[in-house]
C-alpha cells in the first residue's frame, strides 16, 4: 500500500511569546508529520501549547523557529461554538461562504446539505441562543465544513459538553470524517476521547510544549468510548502523561 | 440498529430534551405592559389635582387637570397646533438624522484608528457633558437667527452620545467572535460589515436612544431662544403662552412636549432595543 501524502509537515517548530520582559516558550522542537485524511489527536496537560499548535497550523500566529508546511486550507473550531448571536443557524453556516464570495443559490444549497449532515435541518431558522450546547457545537462543525477546508483543526470542541452529548458527538464526528476524507487535528486533555477518535495520539509535555511520545491507535472503527481496548490504551497513555506531569513537580 | 441510525435517534432525542419550548401570548403581554403605565398616569394626575386644589398657589397660576385637559383638547383642535408640532418634528428628524450620520462616522473612525481615539476620544465624552444651551450664543453669532443655528446646536448635542454608543459597542465585541470571524475569512472591511458592526448594534441603539433625548432637549431650548417669525413651533407656542401668563396653555404645551418625547422613545427605540436583545437571547 502506498503511504498517504503528507498534509501537514512540522519540523523543529518553536514558538515563544513576549510579555513585558518575560519570554514564555510555548512550543519547542516539535517535529510532526500528518498524512492526508488521517485523524490525529493531541493530548497533554494544561500549558503544553496544544492550542498554540493549532493557531500556528491555522496561520493565526507565526512560528518563532523551525518550519511548518501545510498543503490545503484549514478551518478551526473552538471549545466554545463562537456562533454569531445575531445570525440564524443557517446564516451562521453561510457566513464563510459569503466571505468567500460564493453565490446565494449555491450558499443556500450547500448550507442545507451541511445542516442535514449534522442533523440540524429543522433548526435552520433558529437563533444560537435557542439551541443546546451540543446543537451549537454541531452548527459550528457545519460552519467549519462550509469553509471547504482540507484540514479541520479542533480545539477541545467537546470540552464543555456533558458526557452523554459528547459521546453522541464522537459517533457523529467519526461518521462524518469517514465520509469526508478530511484531515483532522483534534486537541483535547481527555485521553479517552483521544483514543476513541484518533488514528494517532500525540502526547505533549508542558512548559515548553514538546512531544513526549506518539501512539498509533490500531483499533477498528467504529469505536465506542467504553470499549475495553480503548480503555486499555488510554490507561497506558495516561500513565505516561502522569509521569510527565510528576517530572514537573521534581524540577 | 446500525451505528449511524442509532446516533441519529440519540441526537434527536437529546435535541428534543434540551431545546426549550417558548410560549408568548401576545395579548396578555401587551396588557401587562400597558396597565402599569396607565396606572402611573392616573397617579400623576391625582397628585397634580391634589396640589392644585390645596390652595398653595392661586388657580390662575397653577391650574389643575380639570382646567388643563379640556384646554388641551381645545388646542389639539386648532390647525396652528398641528403646524407647530409639524415644524418641530421636522427639525427633530433632520437634526437626529444629521447627528446619526456625524456620530456614526466619528464613532467608527475613533474605534478604527488608534490615533483618532487618542486625539478626540475623551473630547467626545467632554462634549457630551456640555449643556447644549451653552452653544446658542456661538450658534447665533455663526448663523444668525435661522434654522441652521438650531440644527447646529441639536447636532452638537446628540452626536457625541451616538458616537460613544458605537465606540462602546465595538470595543465590547467579544474577542472570541473576532477570532471566529478571522478564522472564517473576514478581513479588514468585511470584519466591520459582518462582525464588529452587528456586534455593536445593541450599544449603538442605546446610543441612538440617548441621542434622541439630547435632540429633543436641545431642540426645545433652541426653539425658546431662536424664534423665527411666521413659523410656529412648539418652542414658540410655549414662549407665547408664557408672555401672556396663560398657565393652562403653558402646561398644555409642556404635556405635548412630554408626550412626544415619551412616544418617540417607546415606539422607535425601546421596541427596537427589546427586539435586538430578544433575538440574541438577552432579553
Describe this structure in words.
The complex is a heterodimer of chains A (about 250) and B (about 280). Chain A has about 250 residues and is an alpha/beta fold. Chain A is about 40% helix and about 25% strand. Chain A has a domain at about 85-150. In chain A, the strands form two sheets. Chain A has a six-stranded mixed beta sheet, sandwiched between helices. The radius of gyration of chain A is 19 Å and the shape is globular. The mean pLDDT of chain A is about 85. The longest helix of chain B is centred in the last third of the chain and has 37 residues, at about 190-225. By secondary structure, chain B is mostly helical. Chain B has a domain at about 75-170 and about 200-280: MetI-like fold (Orthogonal Bundle), CATH 1.10.3720.10. Classes of the chains: A alpha/beta (about 250), B mainly alpha (about 280). The interface of A and B includes residues 80, 84, 87, 98 and 123 of A.
In short, what is this structure?
Chain A has 251 residues and is an alpha/beta fold. Chain A has helices spanning 50-58, 89-99, 104-117, 133-146, 163-180, 191-197, 228-250, and strands at residues 6-19, 22-35, 39-44, 65-70, 74-77, 151-155, 183-188, 200-204, 211-216.
List keywords for this structure.
heterodimer; A: 251 residues; alpha/beta; six-stranded mixed β-sheet; 7 helices; 9 strands; globular; B: 283 residues; mainly alpha; MetI-like fold; flat
Amino acid at each position: 500500500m502506498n503511504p498517504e501524502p503528507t498534509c501537514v509537515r512540522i519540523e523543529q517548530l518553536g514558538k515563544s511569546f513576549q510579555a513585558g520582559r518575560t519570554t514564555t516558550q510555548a512550543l519547542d522542537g516539535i517535529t510532526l508529520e500528518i498524512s492526508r485524511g488521517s485523524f490525529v489527536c493531541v493530548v497533554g496537560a494544561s500549558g503544553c501549547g496544544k492550542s498554540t499548535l493549532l493557531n500556528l497550523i491555522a496561520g493565526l500566529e507565526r512560528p518563532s523557529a523551525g518550519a511548518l508546511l501545510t498543503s490545503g486550507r484549514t478551518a478551526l473550531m473552538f471549545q466554545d461554538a463562537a456562533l454569531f448571536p445575531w445570525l440564524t443557524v443557517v446564516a451562521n453556516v453561510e457566513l464563510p461562504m459569503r466571505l468567500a464570495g460564493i453565490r446565494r443559490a449555491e450558499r443556500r444549497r450547500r448550507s442545507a446539505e451541511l445542516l442535514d449532515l449534522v442533523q440540524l435541518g429543522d433548526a435552520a431558522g433558529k437563533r444560537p441562543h435557542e439551541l443546546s450546547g451540543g446543537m451549537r457545537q454541531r452548527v459550528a462543525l457545519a460552519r467549519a465544513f462550509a469553509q471547504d477546508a482540507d484540514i479541520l483543526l479542533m480545539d477541545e470542541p467537546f470540552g464543555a459538553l456533558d458526557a452523554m452529548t459528547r459521546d453522541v458527538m464522537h459517533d457523529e464526528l467519526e461518521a462524518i470524517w469517514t465520509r469526508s476524507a478530511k484531515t483532522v487535528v483534534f486537541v483535547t486533555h481527555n485521553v479517552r476521547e483521544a483514543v476513541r477518535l484518533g488514528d494517532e495520539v500525540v502526547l505533549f509535555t508542558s512548559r515548553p510544549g514538546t512531544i513526549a511520545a506518539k501512539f498509533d491507535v490500531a483499533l477498528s472503527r467504529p469505536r465506542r468510548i467504553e470499549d475495553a481496548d480503548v480503555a486499555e490504551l488510554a490507561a497506558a497513555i495516561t500513565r505516561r502523561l502522569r509521569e510527565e506531569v510528576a517530572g514537573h513537580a521534581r524540577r | 440498529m446500525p451505528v449511524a441510525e442509532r446516533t441519529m435517534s440519540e441526537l434527536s432525542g437529546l435535541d428534543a430534551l434540551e431545546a426549550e419550548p417558548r410560549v408568548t401570548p401576545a395579548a396578555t403581554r401587551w396588557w401587562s405592559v400597558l396597565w402599569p403605565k396607565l396606572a402611573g398616569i392616573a397617579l400623576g394626575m391625582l397628585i397634580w389635582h391634589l396640589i392644585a386644589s390645596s390652595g398653595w398657589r392661586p388657580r390662575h397660576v397653577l391650574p389643575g387637570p380639570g382646567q388643563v385637559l379640556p384646554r388641551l383638547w381645545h388646542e389639539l383642535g386648532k390647525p396652528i397646533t398641528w403646524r407647530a408640532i409639524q415644524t418641530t418634528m421636522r427639525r427633530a428628524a433632520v437634526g437626529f438624522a444629521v447627528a446619526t450620520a456625524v456620530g456614526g462616522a466619528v464613532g467608527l473612525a475613533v474605534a478604527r484608528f488608534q490615533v483618532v481615539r487618542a486625539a478626540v476620544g475623551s473630547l467626545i465624552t467632554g462634549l457630551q457633558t456640555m449643556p447644549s444651551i451653552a452653544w446658542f450664543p456661538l450658534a447665533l453669532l455663526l448663523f444668525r437667527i435661522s434654522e441652521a443655528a438650531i440644527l447646529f446646536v441639536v447636532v452638537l448635542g446628540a452626536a457625541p452620545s451616538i458616537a460613544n454608543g458605537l465606540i462602546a459597542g465595538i470595543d465590547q465585541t467579544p474577542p472570541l467572535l473576532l477570532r471566529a470571524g478571522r478564522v472564517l475569512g473576514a478581513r479588514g472591511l468585511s470584519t466591520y460589515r459582518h462582525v464588529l458592526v452587528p456586534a455593536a448594534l445593541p450599544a449603538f441603539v442605546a446610543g441612538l436612544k440617548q441621542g434622541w433625548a439630547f435632540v429633543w432637549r436641545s431642540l426645545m431650548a433652541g426653539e425658546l431662544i431662536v424664534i423665527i417669525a411666521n413659523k410656529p413651533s412648539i418652542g414658540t407656542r410655549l414662549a407665547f403662552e408664557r408672555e401672556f401668563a396663560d398657565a393652562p396653555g403653558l402646561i398644555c404645551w409642556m404635556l405635548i412636549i412630554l408626550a412626544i418625547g415619551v412616544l418617540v422613545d417607546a415606539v422607535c427605540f425601546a421596541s427596537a432595543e427589546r427586539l435586538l436583545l430578544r433575538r440574541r437571547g438577552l432579553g
